[in-house]
Structure formats: structure tokens, C-alpha cells
Amino acid sequence: MPIELHRIDDRLIHGQVVVGWGQPLELRFLVLVDDEVAASEWEQELYRMGVPPDMRVEFVSVAQAVERYERFAADPKPGMLLTGDIDTMARLCAAIPALRRVNLGGVHHRAGRAQKLRYIFLTGAEEAELRAMAASGVEISAQDLPAARVIPLDHILTGEAIA
Amino acid sequence: MSDAAARPQALVIGHKDFAVGIVSAVTAITGRGDVFRTASNYGLDTRAMEAIVRDAIAEGVTVIFSDLPAGSTTMAARRAQRDFPEVTVVTGVNLPTLLDYAFAAPDSTRAADLAVEKGRAALMVARGNVRAD
């Protein structure tokens, strides 16, 4: 599977992605799916600065990601697809039948969100969106780093796994 | 202590307890930890981190030291810098860099550059003599 991880992380490209996952998985490309970043040269430059020279990064909108997903998935090198929020990933899952596994890597505190894990905070609407994705056959779990415990969606939503 | 020395001139922002830890080392060595304000990215999204950086700038911080060039801390600093081009962002900070900066004159425009030179020069690989059998 060339796209090793489909990750939701509101920090997008940062240390955990580039170093924490990037090194053990030997990631060679990142696909950052975000309509705002895809439309801003300045934002792209900012994120590009955080990517090592041996890692390629593509900035795409949701529509472009759907259109190009087959090409990303056919890449022989390992890669990661990243979104900054749950809604963007939900839109991708709805449009790409092959995208059936999602990693929750970081959804941090903001007004209206309740803590579910140390690094996952959700609004009621986000919770409902995750439940709907799971009901459609997408396997969702949380794991901030490769060495961390994989926590399935059911356990996340009960909030029992806060640590 | 002068007003300039009492007011932090620089922000150190890093992962988890990095900033508090490295500034505590500066204090232990120089007694000048009050030159630095500290912040952590722990539990924060990029917007919240950027807000911390902007608050620091509003209170007079002109130099931001971050730990990891690829980190969210650097992203937050660079984002805030867009509106405050007079602010300097230094990435990959180490202890020798901060020690040098701690002794810089508060009005020095080259303090960050000189501190980076010191920090870079302090990185070395030391190997013991290997005996040939």
C-alpha cells in the first residue's frame, strides 16, 4: 500500500509527521489536502520549509485529491495523505471508495470541543461525522506516533482512553 | 536590574517542556533567564500557538527561537512573522545559542545572528583515540 497512512492532524506538516512517522515508514511523499493551502503559495512555501529534501510534497484541494488519488496510490514509494480536519477526510472517504482506513493523529482543543484523548478533542458534530464515516465502512483509529497504542473509534468516543 | 533586562526580549517556543528546560539551563549558567519568555506547543493547534507568538510580539518580543525547523512551533512563528517582518525567527536552537543571546545588548540588531554563529560552532563530533591492534 503506497499511501501508508491517511491522517487527520490539525498541525498538518510538523515534527510528528515528518520525523515521528516519516523516518520509520521511510515516507517519500506527502499529499496535503486542504483547499485553503492549495490556493495559497505563501502557505505552501511555509509547509515546504518543514519537509526534508528527500520527501516530495503535493498540495491539493479536495477535488484534486479525488481526481489524482489513483496516481498517489499507484506510487511505488511510501507516502502519507494528510488533512487538517475531519470534514475534509470525510469528503475524501465519501468520494474515494479505496480510502477505508483513517488515522486520527491530532485534533486539538478549541472552544466547543470535548476531550476524548490527550491529543483528540471533538465537537458533537465532529463525533457524528466520525460515526457516519465508520458506519460507511471506514476503519478509524487514533495513534499519534508509531510506537503509541492504536485506539479504535469506539474507545475514543467513550473518552475512557484519556491518558 | 534595568527595565530592558526585566522584560523578555525573546521567546523560546518548543515541543513539550523543551523551552522551560533549556531556559532553566540558561538561568543556571548565567542567571539571565529573564531575557527569555517560554512557550510549549503541547496540546495546542497551530492557531493557538500562533496566538501565543502574537501575544509575545505585542509585549515586545523581537526574536523567536524555535526548536525544530519542521515543527509546528516554527510554522506558528513564521505565520506571525508575516505580519511583523521586524521579528526574527531562529530555528534549531541549542543551549550555546541562548547563552550567547542572553549576554547580547538589548538593542543589538545582530544579536540573533551572532548567537546562531555561536550555536553552530558549538556542534562538534568528538571521538576518542582508537588504538590499532
Commentary on this structure:
The complex is a heterodimer of chains A (163) and B (133). By secondary structure, chain A is α/β, with parallel strands linked by helices. Chain A has one domain (3-158): Fructose Permease. Chain A has 7 helices and 9 strands; from the N terminus they run E-H-E-H-H-E-H-E-H-E-E-E-H-E-E-H. In chain A, the strands form 2 sheets. In chain A, strands 3-2-4-1-5-8-9 form a 7-stranded mixed β-sheet. A two-stranded antiparallel sheet of chain A has the order 6-7. In chain A, helix 5 (86-95) runs parallel beside helix 6. The radius of gyration of chain A is 15 Å and the shape is globular. Chain B has 133 residues and is an alpha/beta fold. Chain B has one domain (3-121): Rossmann fold. Chain B is 44% helix and 13% strand. Chain B is built from 6 helices and 4 strands. Chain B has helices spanning 3-6, 18-30, 46-58, 72-81, 95-102, 111-121, and strands spanning 10-14, 36-40, 63-66, 88-90. In chain B, helix 4 (72-81) links the parallel strand 3 and strand 4.
- Biggest interface between chains: A-B, 22 and 17 residues
Succession of helices and strands of chain A: EHEHHEHEHEEEHEEH
What is the CATH H-level superfamily of chain B? Phosphotransferase system, mannose-type IIA component
Q: Measure the end-to-end span of chain A.
A: 31 Å
CATH topology of chain A: Fructose Permease
Approximate helicity band of chain A? 25-40%
- Mean pLDDT across every amino acid position of chain A: 94
Q: Give the class of chain A from helix and strand content and strand pairing.
A: alpha/beta
Approximate shape of chain A: globular
Which labels suit this protein?
heterodimer, A: alpha/beta, Fructose Permease, 7-stranded mixed beta sheet, two-stranded antiparallel ribbon, 7 helices, 37% helix, globular, B: 133 residues, alpha/beta, Rossmann fold, 6 helices, 44% helix, disordered N terminus
